[in-house]
Amino acid sequence: MLDMPPPPNAGGAIEHRLDYADGNRRRVFVTHIETPYPKGRLIVSRTDTRGIITQCNQSFVDMSGYERGELIGQPHCLLRHPDMPSVAFRDLWETVQAGRQWHGYVKNLRKDGGHYWVFATVVPNIRDGRIVGYTSVRREPSRERVAQAEASYKEWIRS
Amino acid sequence: MSFNFTVSPSFPAERISDWYIFNTWLQRSLSIPIHLELHDGFDAQRAAIEAGQVDLIHANPFDASLLVREKGFRAIARPDGAPDEMVIVSAQGHPALAIDDLPPGTRIACANDPCVNTIGRILLEPANLGADNTVEQQRGTYIQVAKDVLRGQADVGFLPVGAYRGLSSLVRRELKVLVTSDIQVIHHVFLLGRDLHARADDFVRILLSMHETEKGQDLLSALGATRWQAVEQEDVEFMIDIISTLTQ
Ligand SMILES: Cc1cc2nc3c(=O)[nH]c(=O)nc-3n(C[C@H](O)[C@H](O)[C@H](O)COP(=O)(O)O)c2cc1C
To answer: Ligand 1 test: best mutation among A92, A108, A157, most atoms within 8 Å of CB?
Structure first.
């Protein structure tokens, strides 16, 4: 995955280095700008068994800030925000690989360094008894729940 | 022996006769005996499904989940056009201007369509409203839902977009839409039970060419579509995976 280019108005953006579970690293620039969740919508994406994006809906494209062609074929951790603790995603992967549904509050990173909050549910796509991929459906979270998740994630990252 | 056909009870009552005409057309086109049984509500229909009394069905997305995953039904076609969306309305004079303004204790008027109610519930989550801090009032028809809202007996009402548009302009003027769902990926599908799988190709052929005759076109437009589209089993499996994330 490519490093993020520094944004043109780099003044407010903070540089971070992300360490992924597979040993890869990526440099990102993060701002404090939150994009509000689009009312009434679901944000849907689908991956293969390794977490590579294979399909997504228009809301997913719009919220990510990328073009569709920049998303398909990329690992889903393209959207990983440095404020998200890696233990949340470890739990996600363990749960869905065991054939169960995972839910959680997720702060996602946009291409422009901003972010958006979602309540995500990830399910394994089971066909003829085999897991052939995963689907994630996100919906709008309440601000109270986002505040709680934000506080817990800060705690988890510190410990 | 005749096959039993049914339609998920979410369609407007004015369409009942159109479904009978559709059934006659289906029997003639395929030269097989088909009996149309329209169940009085979702519970009666679920009971018929459980009793094995349904061989073919125009199913709402939630019924399709059960039928495909647990009963071996196969999806063969779906009507084109708008997917199944819903609105949450309140009375013009109600203080809430958006979902976020709704307080705990909000009274909800709804019918008993599980699709509409599930999506409506999801669209209330941003206001931190759930089953434990709202009051739900189930009504027999969507007209009654609208009336409850207009009379101030409910703060909000859940309506399918089709039912909302079907209200008189006088009633609609007294209502405001707080949110419209834009789910995009959820729609009705035409399903065949195991006993009809051998005839699936015939069903697909006649449904997909239905719009080619004037009579077929008239029937389709009465049912709110312009043509049938083919669906792959995987499209429906994907829709069912999405629905499974909404129902817990
Ligand atoms: C279907 C599916 C959807 C996912 N959606 C996201 C997402 O929206 N944002 C995100 O940061 N990670 C998402 N993940 C998790 C990523 O694959 C990855 O685990 C995460 O970004 C953390 O990276 P790491 O596991 O390399 O540490 C998703 C995984 C799956 C299977």
So the answer is: A92
How do residues B192-232 score in pLDDT, each as one tens digit? 999 999 999 999 999 999 999 999 999 998 888 899 999 99
* Cβ–Cβ below 8 Å for A119 and B238: no
Could you tell me the pTM of the whole model? 0.91
**CATH number of the domain where residue A109 is located:** 3.30.450.20
Q: Does residue A29 fall inside a structural domain?
A: no
What is the DSSP code string of chain B? --EEEEE-TTS-GGGHHHHHHHHHHHHHHHTS-EEE---SSHHHHHHHHHTT--SEEEE-HHHHHHHHHHH--EEEEEE-S----EEEEEETT-S-SSGGGPPTTEEEEE-S-HHHHHHHHHHHGGGT--GGGEEEEE-SSHHHHHHHHHTTS-SEEEEEHHHHHHS-HHHHHTEEEEEE-B--S---EEEE-GGGGGGHHHHHHHHHTGGGSHHHHHHHHHTT-S-EEE--HHHHHHHHHHHHHH--
pLDDT digits 0-9 by tens, B232-246 = 989 999 999 999 999
Q: Please report whether residue A69 resides in a domain.
A: yes
